[in-house]
Design a protein that fits this description.
2 copies of one chain form a homodimer. In chain A, helix 10 packs across helix 11. Among the domains of chain A are: 171 residues, Acetylglutamate kinase-like (Carbamate kinase, 3-Layer(aba) Sandwich); 74 residues, Alpha-Beta Plaits (2-Layer Sandwich). The C terminus of chain A is likely disordered. In chain A, a hairpin with a 5-residue loop joins strand 7 and strand 8. The longest helix of chain A is centred in the first third of the chain and has 25 residues. By secondary structure, the first copy, chain A, is an alpha/beta fold. The first copy, chain A, is globular and about 75 Å long. At the A-B interface, helix 1, helix 2 and helix 3 of A face helix 1, helix 2 and helix 3 of B. Chains A, B: Keywords: Amino-acid biosynthesis, ATP-binding, Diaminopimelate biosynthesis, Kinase, Lysine biosynthesis, Nucleotide-binding, Transferase.
Chain lengths: 417, 417
């Protein structure tokens, strides 16, 4: 007998028919002799409908009351799923975030979990129940209802799995698992049997958003094995764990891309100490995340440097730089979009020199120039022109021996709803 | 500065436009310099919609999960109303039942309030907030979410008013106040300026269901003045309090009726001790409330007796009696519907003999025979044939000097939605 946490997203419980299917899936697992805790999101469009109602009453959407409002979405899901499971003859009980013991920091809309007191979950399991827990929500020490923000239900599932020492946390989604790259671009993408937390983190952060990075970090920290699998079939899925068995000769596990990229360049900046700190401090204080930073050579005491930000942050970043001009007499600021960041990820590349060089060569052979580069021990990222993205990804997939004979079969786009 | 609890039902907050109107009404009160706590029900059809969804998943509607499900209805209302009030420039904060400190017995679907710990409500008021509290719900000592059952939001309002020592509890409804009788039947019904708790209790129990009897009992017990008034206009409403000022010469304050009545007769029962206890014990154990009981004379060691029950309980009651036949050899059981219970209520009748006699006389003068009678210190009830109900009520209204010159103006039927 194993203890599983099973997480189903909003589209998996979009209506009562789908709810019944999820109930059946959970009972199947219980019938195999396992203990099950189910984490579930709000049904389909519930959250959007509630937001629409709120907008009609208060355009500012005050955060504390929005948490009060939106947490009803998961509370509806858990009670209905519990009833659906009971209708199949199994004992089931639902808990809100606060009932399941989720204590968060006192922040609304994007609280972090401080700790979990899962006594009631454990007691209910011991009493033979399937336990249903509302994703995405918690409570402060003062009894205020909070939400965990983006990726919240994944994080709920992983954190709860760690707290109750589950054997695994299964994330049910609309794809079969983690693929070597986007199967919509490369038809012969391979489904990965296993992947390490670090590789998954790189992929998650790079836009292959089947799992939220925060959930992966939590899993890595606590050592809970994650299983990403489809809610529509019984295929095996991908296991995310500490030390993924490395296939013979596989250096690169996956290729990710991110279209949400803009490059900003500051030209002719006085080359004095503290300049970078000033620029990036100002950007950080506006909540703008900077990804890659490149400084070019200094000439006549002036330097040029470039950095990449999310496309959606570009206007905001340019405004911040304009505001700095009085203190920082640069010559010019330019920016560029229609870019894409392509990344190869693989734990194997640590011990294989030349992996990056091969990437640059493959990209060049497609007639594409590389604008920025960043590397980590298990990743190389290149910012390139977006026009030939598909050709570049296909060429890299082939060059790193990732093509399989079979075509990838996926239930939908490999993008998180 | 006074402290008011204001209660709005589901139809008053049926959509976002009505929600805005309620917000405006509350802010008006606050602008007069008062502290306001608002108790609100689920919006319009929300509860019914949730029940429909649940039915599709589990026809048994398990009580614990139904409480989990249905309490989301009020949670949506309170957060939206809080946002609507904030949009008008006032500080507001919403609390669920458990956050407002409602502790109930461990029963689902119809829990009674054990006690209230309103610290958070008091703190929020002290902080200058308008406080919005979810009606109809509470929490057990074990942290289980419960609902208070029928009339729950009225009870929430009154109990909270008592707990925070409010100066009054205003029940906003779709009628102007409490009338001397149903204004749909008697056009010249009079709106009562004041009425005592006891009179209101009799009227509430007798089907003039503007206020739920449980809420009136709570108010009587705690001495909180209730004000029943319209959410659609600023008319004065009716004050329900301990000692209502008695108008000169008014003996009867109101005339109520209840169509939900059936009479059951058991004929030829052996007249031995314990028979009544056996019959009514068996009915009570099936949750059947018996109202009036009449035993006729004994002949040849056999007795006949009749009792009234709610029409909806008739079949169930007959089944119970059938089950008793082996132990209780009665001759025959008969039952009768198309009946109505008409009642006159008035604190003044204690000191005015002949009030009941006058009632019997008025009913007889309409050619209607009286089937059963029951009396209390402030009430006389007669079960009669339903056919001439309107004539009887009009005649009683005139006989007890209740007719006014003006026609009653009401926003809707004097029946609780």
């Amino acid at each position: 007998m194993s203890l599983y946490v099973m997480k189903f997203g909003g589209s998996s419980v979009g209506d009562t028919e789908r709810m019944k299917r999820v109930a059946g899936r959970v009972v199947e697992k219980a019938d195999e002799g396992h203990q099950c805790v189910v984490v579930v999101s709000a049904m389909g469009d519930t959250t959007d409908d509630l937001i629409d109602q709120a907008k009609m009453l208060n355009s500012e959407l005050p955060a504390r009351e929005m948490d009060m409002l939106l947490t009803t979405g998961e509370q509806i899901s858990i009670s209905l799923l519990s009833m659906a499971i009971q209708a199949l003859g199994r004992k089931a009980i639902s808990f809100t975030g606060w009932q399941a013991g989720f204590r968060t920091e006192p922040v609304h809309g994007k609280a972090r979990i401080n700790n979990i007191h899962p006594e009631r979950v454990n007691e209910a399991l011991a009493g033979g129940n399937i336990v249903i827990v509302a994703g995405f929500q918690g409570m402060t020490e003062d009894g205020e209802i909070t939400t965990l923000g983006r990726g919240g239900s994944d994080t709920t599932a992983v954190a709860l799995a760690a707290a109750i020492k589950a054997d695994a946390c299964e994330i049910y989604t609309d794809v079969d698992g983690i693929y070597s790259t986007d199967p919509r671009i490369v038809k012969v993408a391979r489904k990965l049997k296993e992947i390490s937390y670090d590789e998954m983190l790189e992929l998650a952060n790079l836009g292959a958003a089947v799992l939220h990075p925060r959930a992966v970090e939590y899993a890595k920290h606590s050592g809970v094995p994650l299983i990403v699998r489809s809610s529509f079939n019984h295929n095996e899925g991908t296991v995310v764990k500490e030390e993924a068995a490395m296939e013979q000769g596989v250096v690169v596990s996956g290729i990710a891309y991110d279209k949400n990229v803009a490059r900003i360049s500051i030209l002719g900046v006085p080359d004095v100490p503290g300049v970078l700190a000033e620029v990036f401090g100002a950007l950080a204080s506006e909540q703008i995340d900077v990804d890659i930073i490149v400084q070019s050579g200094v000439m006549d005491g002036k330097a040029d440097f470039s950095f990449s930000v999310a496309l959606s942050d570009r206007e905001n970043a340019l405004r911040v730089l304009e505001g700095l001009h009085s203190r920082l007499p640069y010559r010019e600021v330019t920016s560029e979009d229609n870019l894409v960041k392509v990344s190869i990820v693989g734990a194997g590349m640590v011990s294989h020199p030349g992996v990056a060089a091969k990437m640059f060569q493959v990209i060049s052979s497609q007639g594409v120039s590389i604008k920025m580069v960043s590397t980590s021990e298990i990743k190389v990222s290149c910012v390139i022109d977006g026009d030939k993205l598909h050709d570049v990804i296909k060429a890299l997939h082939t060059a790193y021996d990732l093509d399989t004979a079979e075509q990838a079969v996926v239930g939908g786009p490999q993008v998180r709803r």
